[in-house]
From TrEMBL:
It comes from the Archaea. Residues 1-38, 444-485 are annotated as: Disordered. This is glycine dehydrogenase (aminomethyl-transferring). Keywords: Oxidoreductase, Pyridoxal phosphate. Residues 23-38 have a biased composition (Basic and acidic residues). PANTHER family: GLYCINE DEHYDROGENASE (DECARBOXYLATING), MITOCHONDRIAL, GLYCINE DEHYDROGENASE, DECARBOXYLATING. Its EC number is 1.4.4.2. Residues 149-281 form the Aminotransferase class V domain. NCBIfam families: PRK04366.1. Residues 447-458 have a biased composition (Low complexity). It catalyses: N(6)-[(R)-lipoyl]-L-lysyl-[glycine-cleavage complex H protein] + glycine + H(+) = N(6)-[(R)-S(8)-aminomethyldihydrolipoyl]-L-lysyl-[glycine-cleavage complex H protein] + CO2.
Length: 485
């Protein structure tokens, strides 16, 4: 079955893209009296209608959506990104709210909004086993950065900031961990994985010391493996005076079952646009709330929503706040959708989510022929494309009307295909995905090199896209001329 239901064939064999003009290039030609023989007295001189007309606009966007691929087209197992289906009831809730509140409205007239934000802070604190949560950071990476600013403020309050200059990050971590630590002013110490894909406790013991500000960990890690020694790891870091940071991107594996706070983590971020299904992809919008333990709450960003003695809600500035990381209420509509999602699912629903996410990943892995070197895993697994370049393998999967997995990361698996089906896929869709793996692995190198043949665009020039991006629809020279004029 073809989930994409493609409605066009690519126009040329040479790999050019199917083209859809820009909206600004579209003109709607309506029938005029020149086309029809009308009595003179019925002819109006001039009738100017806005163009393009609404049906043209609708078909333009529909066509663009068909040239694209989304979670609503079919399987989208992009490992680590948790591309789960976004249920429409959360969109309905957000649509009710859209534009309803001015960000400067005084707290006493924004009690409903503040109650939702406060409720979400409480939900997330409970889910993560944290003492306090801020909803301000607009993405996971921004949460990491904020969390590390909080860590620095804490060490500074102990007069240790000058000495604690290092953040330890395992080699399998997401690139944002390294970047956030560097942006927060730290030296990054990379910790290699041991042969079973986890943090080597001996090596950690050696790396940790008086210069350690924090260890950043993802658990389960990017191989889908649970760090079994997590309590010992926490003890080692804490004994050295460091803090333990939890990258929450894989929280979907643990929802309702285990809590980072109980494992000994001091700071964590939540990728609500992954774990709690609010829209994700194409760079936004998202939100990356962070949770912290008691000792760190005074450093949280400003503003923070708190409940006053009389039961009302208000924005307040934590006493030793690291300052602002976002304006006003954070990414309010994303947060509202998260609140709706958690409220609708409840305890039992969240538990089902993690159970199905793990079950689906394990079922899918059992249906494919590729080597999966590390396991048993949780909600995602990393298969190896073996002798084949993982990016080529992924191109081959595109022709099977699925989105391919994340490729070439984590680097500890050769030609990695990091696969996360999420709980949202049916057995039917998981089988479609398994067939796509099989089909790609049966393709010859020539067939892979020619793929994809059924998508709107063939192979784009990735180097030019990165080095020489043209982000305007206008001809460059024309635009320059216009500016000169
Ligand atoms: C997605 C992800 C991040 C970064 O989160 P964003 O919300 O995309 O900024 C960090 N760590 C891991 C493991 C991730 O998968």
């Amino acid at each position: 079955m073809n989930y994409r239901q493609a409605t066009w064939e690519r126009e040329t064999e040479s790999g050019e893209a199917v083209n859809e003009p820009l909206l600004s290039e579209k003109r709607t030609e309506t029938v005029t009296h020149d086309d029809v023989d009308l009595p003179d007295e019925l002819v109006r001189d001039e009738l100017t209608l806005p163009e393009p007309a609404e049906p043209e606009v609708a078909s333009h966007y529909t066509r663009l959506s068909q040239m694209n691929y989304s979670v609503e087209h079919g399987p989208y197992p992009l490992g680590s990104c948790t591309m789960k289906y976004n249920p429409k009831f959360t969109e309905d809730v957000a649509a009710l709210e859209d534009g309803a509140i001015h960000p400067d409205r005084p707290d006493e007239y924004a009690q409903g909004t503040l109650a939702v934000l406060h409720g979400l802070q409480e939900y997330l604190a409970e889910i993560g086993g944290m003492d306090a949560v801020t909803l301000q950071p607009p993405a996971g990476a921004a949460g990491e950065f904020t969390g590390l600013l909080v860590a620095r403020a804490y060490h500074r309050s102990n007069d240790e900031d000058d000495d604690r200059r290092e953040v330890i990050v395992p080699a399998s971590a997401h690139g944002t961990n390294f970047a956030s630590a560097a942006m927060a002013g730290y030296d990054v110490v990379e910790l290699p994985s041991d042969e079973d894909g986890r943090v080597p406790v001996d090596a950690l013991e050696e790396a940790v010391g008086e210069s350690t500000a924090a260890l950043m960990l993802t658990n389960p890690n990017t191989l889908g493996l649970f760090e079994r020694d997590i309590e010992e790891i926490a003890e080692i870091v804490h004994d050295a005076g460091g803090l333990l940071y939890y990258d929450g991107a894989n929280l979907n594996a643990l929802l309702g079952r285990a809590r980072p706070g109980d494992m000994g983590f001091d700071i964590m971020h939540y990728n609500v646009h992954k774990t709690f299904a609010s829209p994700h992809g194409g760079g936004g919008p998202g939100a990356g709330p962070i949770g912290v333990v008691d000792e760190l709450t005074e450093f949280l960003p400003d503003p923070h929503v708190r409940e006053a003695d009389d039961g009302s809600f208000e924005f307040s500035e934590p006493p030793e706040s690291v300052g602002k990381v976002h304006g006003f209420h954070g990414n309010w509509l994303v947060l509202l959708k998260t609140y709706a999602y958690i409220s609708r699912l409840g305890d039992a629903g969240l538990k089902d989510t993690s159970a199905m996410a793990v079950l689906n990943a394990n079922y899918l892995a059992s249906q494919i022929d590729l080597d999966v070197p590390y396991g048993p895993f949780h909600h995602e697994f990393v298969a190896s494309a073996g002798d084949v370049d993982a990016a080529e393998f992924a191109k081959g999967m595109l022709d099977e009307a699925v989105h391919p997995p994340t490729t070439k990361w984590p680097e500890i698996v050769d030609e990695a295909l990091m696969t996360e089906p999420t709980e949202a896929l049916s057995k039917d869709q998981l089988d479609v995905l398994a067939d796509a793996f099989t089909a790609a692995s049966q393709k010859t190198p020539e067939e892979l090199a020619a793929a994809p043949t059924t998508t709107a665009a063939a192979r784009i020039d990735q180097t030019s896209a990165a080095r020489n991006p043209r982000l305007s629809w206008r001809d460059v020279e024309e635009a320059v001329e216009e500016v000169d004029e």
